Amino acid sequence: MFDGPEGGCYDDSPVRELEFAKRIAVKAGEMLKRNASGRRSIRYKEGSGNLVTDMDHASEEMIVSALRREFPGHAVVAEESGAAGRSPHRWYIDPVDGTTNYAHGFPLWTVTLAYEREGRLEAGVTYAPVLGELFWARRGGGAFRNGRRIRVTSCGRLEKALLCTGFSYALEWRKVNLRYFAEFLMEAQAIRRMGAASLDLCWTAAGAFDGFWEMRLGPWDMAAGIVILEEAGAKVTNLQGGPVDLSQGDFLGANARLHPQMLAVLNRVRVK
Fold first, then answer.
1. Any idea what the Cα angle at residue 67 is, between residues 92 and 54, rounded to 5°?
2. In the β-sheet with 190-192, what is the strand arrangement from edge to edge?
3. Exposed, middle or buried, 163 (CB in 10 Å: 0-12/13-18/19+)?
4. Topology of 158-270 in CATH?
5. For the chain, which ranges sit under pLDDT 70?
6. Which of 7, 15, 71, 93 is 20 to 30 A from 114 in CA distance terms?
7. Which has the closest alpha carbon to 208: 197, 192, 220?
């Protein structure tokens, strides 16, 4: 037990935070699903092709309001409203990951939240409402999809691996990742590009993909997925093999046998 920011006591295991995240992710996700076919107010974020809808804001407002009631002393880092508060307890929130998919009626989008304590990600939840898939994990507690334990694959050969990636809205980083994509396309069995990084991470954790890499993700895109992937047995690093920096957003995740092979491809391309 330790003292919380308001002087109260918290259990070392983030069970309460995890259960809250599951409840609010489902609540926000179901609201988004009900409104998915309605008319959308869409705008583009300055300097990019990254769009945002009225429903992104509605979902974020629902989540943050509930969080303020449940954990009034906790800090928040949310995609649309940015960072707020100072506390050893921090939440990362993406109210709609895969907004372009959502706006176009493509069913691969999620609501995703992660809880961080003292700089360490402790719990993560990702909900894909149209698919009816709820992923969650907490440190030391395993990773789950709809209540069933999930694990990464045992694929140990890159030529037999199904990989996944995504592309930044910034054109200069798209060009860099195209080089990686081309090299992996020649080395791996196949590559998919789904448009919702949080779901890509969960599907890698569940064994649908053997490995995932991407560049310049937002912290809210990958925070929950880091916990879920690691609890599912994955090795998670940046593209140089070091710790993931949430502020930078370069990410590589795969099982322990495949990870060094993917890292070798990234290193080979980088030195050209």
1. 70
2. 190-192, 162-165, 211-214, 251-254, 235-237
3. buried
4. D-Maltodextrin-Binding Protein; domain 2 (3.40.190)
5. 1-12, 38-52, 271-272
6. 7
7. 192
Residue 51, token pair as written in the block:
């769009």
pLDDT at 42: 55
User: Three-state DSSP class for 173?
Assistant: helix
Please tell me the distance from the alpha carbon of residue 172 to that of residue 37, in angstroms, as a whole number: 34
Do the domains 2-149 and 158-270 sit in the same CATH topology, yes or no? Answer: no
Residues 6+ apart with CB under 8 A from 161: 155, 188, 189, 210, 211, 254, 258
Domain boundaries, the chain: 2-149, 158-270
pLDDT tens digits, residue range 34-61? 988 765 555 555 545 555 678 888 999 9
The single residue listed with the structure tokens 């069995």 is 189
d(CA 105, CA 92): 25
What DSSP state is assigned to residue 195? Answer: S
**Residue written as token pair 């945002």:** 52
pLDDT digits (tens, 9 = 90+) for 99-120: 999 988 999 999 999 999 999 9
Residue 80: predicted pLDDT:
75
Tokens of 246: 């949430």
pLDDT of residue 40: 53
99: which residues sit within 8 A by CB, 6+ positions away?
A: 50, 51, 52, 53, 56, 109
pTM over 0.85? The answer is yes
Say yes or no: domain 2-149 is CATH 3.40.50.10860: no
Q: Which residue has the tokens 């300097």?
A: 47
- Cα 165 to Cα 29, 78, 162, 191: the distances in Å are 24, 23, 11, 7
